[in-house]
Amino acid sequence: MMFYVHVYGPDDLHPFEDELSALREANKLNAMFVKQMEQNAKDPNWPVCYAADMRAIKMWQEKTGKADTWPDHADLVCFLLEQLEKRPASPPDGFVMVPVEPTGAMIDAAASHEFQQCSGNASYVGIYKAMIAAAQKGGA
Fold it and tell me: Does the predicted model carry a pTM greater than 0.70?
């Protein structure tokens, strides 16, 4: 008769020849799990990481049709990379790609827009649009 220890998901079973060995392994894994959970509780980012993991697992389950199965980490990473590769390379309608840091041309466009308003009260929307237009022209 074989005994199994369930580790992570329904597909992750570890066989043992006898019940005592299976119980010892289960207790060892439970102790490791509790220790990890205690460490995670001290990390303020842990709830966000956990939520992201659960969201990714749910996506994997929905796409593969394996609702009762948990992927191992390698499968999950491969799945997420495939999903990223499927994303469009261009931004959605109404968005443009711009540098993270404003270029000299963008800063000049903002200053020029403000100067053209003469009052020093140029609208932020106008300044923003001038900077985006300069970025799209590829000014450095």
Answer: no
